[in-house]
Amino acid sequence: MKNEEIKLLDIQMVATIIFIASLIISLLLIYNEKLKLLKLKTIFGNKEEQDINIINRIVVLILALVFLYANYKDYELSKTPNELKYNSLELFSSCLITIASIIILYVVVNSEGEDGDLISLQNPTI
After folding, report:
1. How far apart are CA 106 and CA 66, in angstroms?
2. Which end of the chain is more exposed for a tag (fewer CB within 10 A), N or C?
3. In terms of Cα–Cα distance, which of 97, 62, 89, 75 is closest to 8?
4. 111: buried, middle or exposed (CB in 10 Å: 19+, 13-18, 0-12)?
C-alpha cells in the first residue's frame, strides 16, 4: 500500500510541474494581449495565440483528469472515517475542476473575439 501512495505522490509531483509550465504559458498569453492593447510588437500572432491557448487548455484538462485519478486512488486508500471524509471532499472538488476545465476548453475552442482577440484568457486552475 505504501508503494501505491508513493506512486501517487510521484504522479502528483510531475503533474504539478506541468501545471506550473501551463501557468507560465498563460502568463505569456496574457502579456501578449497586453502588448496588443499597447499597440506594440507581440510575441505571438492571433492564430498562434489561439492555437497555444487551445493546447494549453487541453493540457489543463489532462492535468485535471490526472488529479481526479490521484484523488480517487487516495479515496480508495482511505483507512479511517476521517480520511474518508476529507478524501471524498477532495474527490468531489476534483470532479468540479474537471467539469470546469471541460467548459473552459469548450469556450476557448468555440470563441474568438473580434480582431482575433482571445475572449478567455483566465489562468488555468487545478
Report:
1. 19
2. N
3. 75
4. exposed
Tell me the pLDDT tens digit for each residue of 17-28.
999 999 999 999
115: left (phi over 0), alpha (psi -120 to 50) or beta: left
Residue 79 neighbours by CB distance under 10 Å = 9
Write out the three cell numbers for 14.
510531475
Of 68, 61, 80, 78, the closest CA to residue 19 belongs to: 61
**For residue 97, what are the CA distances in angstroms to 68, 87, 92?**
9, 15, 9
Closest by CA position to 6, among listed 73, 66, 52 = 73
SS3 per-residue string spanning 71-98: HHHHHHCCCCHHHHHHHHHHHHHHHHHH
Instruction: Return the C-alpha cell found at 70.
Output: 490521484
C-alpha cell read off for 119: 475572449
